[in-house]
Amino acid sequence: MKEPVAMTTYPAVVGAILIARRKELGLSQNALAESVGLTVSTWSRIENGDSALTIEQLKLAGDKLNVLPSQILKEADEKIIELKNRGIETNPVRVSINEIHASGIIPLVGTALFGLISTPLVLAAASVTASAVVTKLAKKFED
Fold first, then answer.
1. Which of 113, 92, 120 is nearest to 15 (CA)?
2. Domains and CATH numbers, the chain
3. What is the three-class DSSP state of 5?
4. Residue 35, pLDDT score
5. Which tens digits make up the pLDDT trace of 95-129?
6. What is the tally of helices (H) and strands (E) in the chain?
7. Among candidate residues 28, 20, 22, 15, the one with its CA nearest the CA of residue 118
8. Among the residues of 86-143, which ranges form H helices?
9. Cα–Cα 20 to 30 A to 9, which of 40, 85, 113, 134?
10. What are phi and psi of 55, to 5 degrees?
């Protein structure tokens, strides 16, 4: 088996940024989903990186979150650099479950990714590296 690798996707990083901003403003998923014209379940998939926003949806979400779409994308690019520096790779698109299993990838999305993006000092303060997290997760999958 290959050495496990922590990986996320660009849509998952954007989703985590949207979660952080939504929570910062005290908005519910329902309120944001309605403003974009989506169901709550679709919005949840966007926040988890399982679906991507169209340009129009990104604009509407940005309007509701009081942020320009370009700022969301710029922050995503900055977070991807931070994640890379912590040993977490970013794929531009979702990886299939077969690819995940065959390559030893441990996907970081949703709450796990949100925690890494919104609280970058927590891991540094605890001296926890991405490889240590991946190793622990890999052992759980082997059990």
1. 113
2. 5-142 (1.10.260.40)
3. strand
4. 96
5. 555 555 555 555 555 555 656 555 433 333 333 44
6. 9, 3
7. 20
8. 97-103, 110-118, 120-125, 130-142
9. 40
10. -60, -45
